[in-house]
Amino acid sequence: MGGGKALVFVAGQVPLEDGQLRFIGRVPTEVSLEDAQAAARLCALNILAQVEAAAGLDKVDVVASVTGFVRSAEGFGEQPQVINAASDLLADVLGDAGRHSRAAVGVSELPRGVSVEIAAVFVVRT
Amino acid sequence: MGGGKALVFVAGQVPLEDGQLRFIGRVPTEVSLEDAQAAARLCALNILAQVEAAAGLDKVDVVASVTGFVRSAEGFGEQPQVINAASDLLADVLGDAGRHSRAAVGVSELPRGVSVEIAAVFVVRT
Amino acid sequence: MGGGKALVFVAGQVPLEDGQLRFIGRVPTEVSLEDAQAAARLCALNILAQVEAAAGLDKVDVVASVTGFVRSAEGFGEQPQVINAASDLLADVLGDAGRHSRAAVGVSELPRGVSVEIAAVFVVRT
Fold first, then answer.
1. For chain A, what is the domain count?
2. Touching subunits for chain C (3+ Cβ pairs under 8 A)
């Protein structure tokens, strides 16, 4: 990256809140679209916590990429609307630095059955 | 990366042509292998358009990685053949710089039901 | 990355051993959890072989990220346990440099029906 920047790869985050997994199930049959968006926001908060611990949020130059996996019931194609909720939260917290490229896909299963998992790559100033 | 290079993360691209999504369905039952390859080429063209807009194709040093998601019917395992079509197009356009590492996986659902989604990371000269 | 470091993106590796694919099927119904862990270790060995060929394992600064796809039967949520086997192998071989962020997801299909596919990004000294 040059010029005192580094990449921080954030592991796939799940909707963990106060040590407990939330929003278990397939979208939208077992977890509604709205709840899946809440799950995505929890993932985003956990991503921010990871970046804060690794480098400090004040050091974020830009969010390089976000990859969101939505545990999808057959025929569900609104993965972008789910992951948008995480994107919006990142933009709210980080401002312009929070804009990012993104991929959203629908998978059949996720760890412990959660509805959403999101990984990210950040560029930070060193 | 050192030496005046930067990474460009390209968001997951879908088979969008003239503002319209094409090749909707699972491979190979609803979308044939050949049509899925056409979808992959559309994704690759949209990736190139993103890189052109972000940095200019003449600045591409190398394609670092390509991740292709193929919406797969049960038992379909030819994801590499589908994503190869995108890889070949990138190599045709970019020459040696177009060679890349790649992952191809089969997912159950994709945004709006498209058959292929491809994300990529490019190294560009700054 | 600055300071003489570069990223190596390793393509999605499958459980190829002596030129033959092993551990074909869904986890845990067709391939047991233990066998899937063996598949993940094979993927990790193939990742190390790729890095050795591309840059040399002695040049590894740190494993930046590992993304593991587990071909999952309905309701299977132990993807982390599967991919942990690859993570443990990387840590055994590389020591502290082998620690990494990770995403593990469950997908419906993988190339040629394999049970596990793993992609990775390494930071190497140049």
1. 1
2. A, B
C56 touches chain B (CB under 8 A): no
Residues of chain C in contact with residue A110, where contact means CB-CB under 8 angstroms, are 77, 79, 105-106
Q: Which domain holds residue A41?
A: 5-125
- Pick the residue from chain A with its C-alpha nearest to B119: A103
First to last CA, chain B: 11
**C112 in helix, strand or coil?**
helix
- Of C11, C108, C112, which has the smallest distance from its Cβ to B72's Cβ? C108
- The CA distance from C42 to the nearest CA of chain B, in Å, is 16
CATH number of the domain to which B11 belongs? 3.30.1330.40
Residues of chain A in contact with residue B50, where contact means CB-CB under 8 angstroms, are 101
Tokens 């038992």 identify what position? B75
pTM: 0.93
Tell me the pLDDT of chain A (126 aa) as tens digits: 446 889 999 999 999 999 999 999 999 999 999 999 999 999 999 999 999 999 999 999 999 999 999 999 999 999 999 999 999 999 999 999 998 889 999 999 999 999 999 999 999 999
C102 contacts C87 by C-beta, under 8 angstroms: yes
Burial A103-119 (b: 16+ CB within 10 A, else e): bbbbbbbbbebbbbbbb
